[in-house]
Amino acid sequence: MRIDLNSDLGEGYGPWAMGDDAAMLGLVTSANVACGGHASDPETMYQTLRLAAQNGVTIGAHPGYNDPLGFGRRVIPMAPAEVGRMVAAQIGSLQAVAALAGTRVAYVKPHGALANLAADDRGVSDAIATAVKAISPDLALLAISGTELEHAARAAGIAVYSEIFADRGYLPSGRLVPRSQPGAMIYDPAAATARLLSFLESGLMPVVGGDPIALAAQSICVHGDNPDAVEMARHIRNQLNAASVTIAAFLPA
User: Fold this and answer.
1) Strand-strand pairing, 219-221 and 246-247
2) Whole-angstrom distance, CA of residue 233 vs CA of residue 223
3) 3-state class percentages of the chain: helix first, strand second, coil last, to nearest 5
4) What CA–CA distance (Å, rounded) separates 115 from 108?
């Protein structure tokens, strides 16, 4: 069995750093790099991309709402076509900086509130898929497992991969527990790893307030903004390897 380990990185801004990107890039196989919407700036993008390339990590664009004060976790009312243009601008920015860093962007993963909205709103997910395909038919989408974004990508003829979250709780609907509610976050690396191993064996994800649900996944996300992200990622990687699970990117770097 093999699976990818991804993290949201490059989420600092100017002199302000978010998490330990250097350590995380030694553990993950794919990096979702912020591209100027919810976080990041050209120099942060460049340094993150260089570190990712040096570690052989596959790079994805991580576009979100243009809301750095809210870290992209608030929905900004926008027409779907506007969302598509916003996403395209951010992907293009990261691609341009990647060219200077001597690497490339292989996929796109929406961030935060935008990802959660696209999970249920087909109009928004179609706009994202259309933007991604217009930029390059070679770009793939990384989507929350079991969501409208997966369906939109397939309808647009885009390669799509599904992810589950190591450190987030799930609702019976398959959506993530809102961060404002109990059970939203999992901070214990051992508990997170036990849940992942059970999922990989059964295909069933435990949920808050219901029976486990079936999900598919080619990638596991560990959030880089979690204070214990490095410990979490290291523990998960070590324990999955011990269980004969190969950690490998779902796309080549």
Assistant:
1) unpaired
2) 9
3) 40, 20, 40
4) 11
pTM exceeds 0.90:
yes
- Superfamily of segment(s) 2-247: Glycoside hydrolase/deacetylase (3.20.20.370)
- Per-residue model confidence as pLDDT tens digits over 150-172: 999 999 999 999 999 999 999 99
Q: CA–CA separation, 9 vs 31, rounded Å?
A: 6
CB atoms within 10 A of CB 244: 7
Q: Which amino acid would we find at residue 200?
A: L
Distance CA 37, CA 100 (A): 20
CA distances to 119, 170, 171, 177, 239 from 209, rounded to whole Å, are 20, 9, 7, 11, 27
Tens digits of residue pLDDT in 188-208: 999 999 999 999 999 999 999
| Residues 6+ away with beta carbon under 8 Å from 178 | 184
**CA distance linking residue 94 with residue 86, whole number of Å:** 13
Give the dihedral of Cα atoms 58, 22, 19, 228; nearest 10 deg. 90
> What does the block give as tokens for 249?
């990117």
CA-CA distance, 175 to 119, in Å (whole number)? Answer: 8
Closest CA to 38 of 80, 79, 9, 15: 9
Joined together, the tokens standing for residue 29 give 């196989």
Strands of the chain, DSSP E? 2-9, 30-34, 58-62, 107-108, 140-144, 160-165, 204-207, 210-214, 219-221, 246-247
